[in-house]
Structure formats: structure tokens, C-alpha cells
User: What shape does this take?
Amino acid sequence: MMAAGRGLIARACARGNCQLGVSDYLADLEDNTRVCNLVEVQFKNTRKDYYVNDNHLELHKGDMVAVEANPGHDIGMVTLTGRLVELQMKKQPPKPGEELKRIYRLARPADMDRYREAKALEHETMIESRQIAKGLGLDMKIGDVEYQGDGQKAIFYYIADGRVDFRQLIKDLAAAFHVRIEMKQIGARQEAGRIGGFGPCGRELCCTTWMRNFQSVGTGAARAQDLSLNPLKLAGQCAKLRCCMNYEVDQYVEASRRLPSREVVLQTDDAEWYLFKTDILRGLVTYSSSRQMAANLVTITAERACEIIALNRDGQKPLTLEDAATVAAQKESENENADLAVQEDVTRFDKARRKKKKKKAAPADSRPQNRRRGGDRKGGGKGERPATGPANE
Assistant: This one.
């Protein structure tokens, strides 16, 4: 049994609150870390990079390490080791001619103390930097600040609709915080991922938990899924169209190809039918006998609608939209699901209860009557006790 914190689960599974976490399914292979000396290191919830373990340190998931930075060094957490790092690098390969930086050592207590001091300044620095940018009249918003592990550098993440000349801002920030300044522009989706929150589905935002690459979302995805084009319902916390609209759009597009066109009018012997609404995934279409309003709605399958369209092209008109088999099945289901109150009397159980009550009450009521009657008839005969009362006196 492996030591606590060094088991397969600890080495393979990612942290639950980590947006960039990866499940290392190769962690149980022999010599996994010896084959590849590349290590993935995460610095904040939205930033990670790849480094070379040229010192051959024994690193595991969750270890805090000091890595090469420009200038100085940075402190990060090891999130992935072994062969899977090479596969992850294919998604984000390094730039041509760029060399990977090195891992210096495991973080020392002094390194961690300096790291915590730098991290404690991030929120205060962000508030003050916003005031400086507002004083310069720049059309931008500083959304987050990240200090380097040794406190020599700070990264300012900002949001802006257009290009911003922040040369004077960099000078003012360097004079105010006495660190090297780096500016990084992010979009509204990245900002929502950094802030976090919950969606209308009740779960944490996808951009906060696992999503890193954002694809453009258009209103065509809403039309393909037959969603209401309401900006308030389709927009997320970033004021952009929700990313989850792209998850099922391909399935809806594939299913909608089997549905008849909206412009086609079905003709039967009794009327002309116009498409009213569709159920894309179930393959059902509802037709109305009026173009302007919902009248005499009939729901049929897409296959039946295509059959009627083919018959209309040949100059034939069916009697009704529904085929004979469907009508018979509907009548049978209606008979099976008919209300019991229509078939039998609701008070049939009450009658049985009343009869039982009468049968139980009859012997108790008849005993004094039988005694009086017996006494009158027999007049206190043999074996009978004479009746008492004023009449005998």
C-alpha cells in the first residue's frame, strides 16, 4: 500500500476546484515519470505552463516548486507529470524557437512565506490600479492581478473593447507598486471564468470549472434548437451568448434534416394543413388547418408527413393526416386510459359499507323487541320471564 497522499488517486485525479485540472490516466504505468522529464505547473486557476525537470527531482501532483521566471523565480503547483505532459503540449505547443524553462527545486519554507506575502497584496493592488486607470481616463477595466512568487513582477489582466494606450499607466503602476508590470488583455468570457458563478442549470459555470478554449456562438445555434431569440435568456453572465448552446447544436441540426420544410403545405380531402410547431428530437410535427392561428391541431410523425408530401406530388390526397394504424392505436389507448368514474358508479363502495353497518346493528335492536313480543304472546309462559312494567302492575 502506498503512502498517504502518494497513491494512484492522489497522483491521477485533479483537484475539484481546478479549472485546468487533468486526470492522469497514465499514472499507474511503470516508469511513467522516467520516460518524460516534462512537468506541467499551474500558477493560478487560469494559468499554467510546461517546464523541464533537468535536475531529475522526484515530483508528484500537488508539490509546490520554484521554477525559472523572467526575472527571478516563480512558485507554482505541479499538476501533471510523465507521458501525458507530451500529449497535453500538443494542444498548446511552444512557439517556434522558444525554449522551455527549468524547474529549480522544491519550494522551501522561505519561498512559501514570500509567496503568501505577494498573494496577499493582489486584491489591494487591483483596487488601487483601477483608480489609477480611471484617473488617466482609459477605457479599460482591470479584472485581476497576479503577483509572481518572488514578488518582483505583477501581471495585470484587463478588459477593453478596443486598443488602449497604457504606456503612461505602466509607468504609474511601476512607480506605485515598485514591481515589473505586465499587461494581458482578456475577453468577457475569460473574466466570467475568473470571477465564477452558477448558471441557470444550477451548476457552476463551465468557464470556471473546465472550459479554456472559447468558440464563437451565434444566433444560428439558437434557431437550430428552436429556442426563443430572447437576449436575456440566451446571454450568460459575461453578456455573451451561452457557450452551452454549442454543445447539442450538431445533434439538433442532424435531427432537423429528417423533418419536413416549413413552407410545404399538406393537402388532404378535408383541408389544407400548415406546419405549426416541431419537436426536433422526438421527430414529431404539429399541423394546423389555419395559417394564422392554432386550429384543429394534429400531431404526426415526420415519416408520415413525408409520405403525405410524396402523395401530394403524385396528385393524391389522403383522407386524413393520421394513418389508419395510428388512429386505431389512439382509440385503443383512449379506451385503456378511460376514467373509472365513467365506467362504474363511484358510490359502489359506499353501498357495501352501509349494508355491513345495518347487519351489525340489527341484532342489538331486535333483542328488546323480541322479549316484549314473546312476553305478550306467551304471557309469561314456561321458560319465559314475565315482563315487568306498569302494565303488569
Summary: DSSP finds 15 helices and twelve strands in the chain. The radius of gyration is 40 Å. The chain has a mean pLDDT of 79. Residues 348-378 form the longest helix (31 residues).
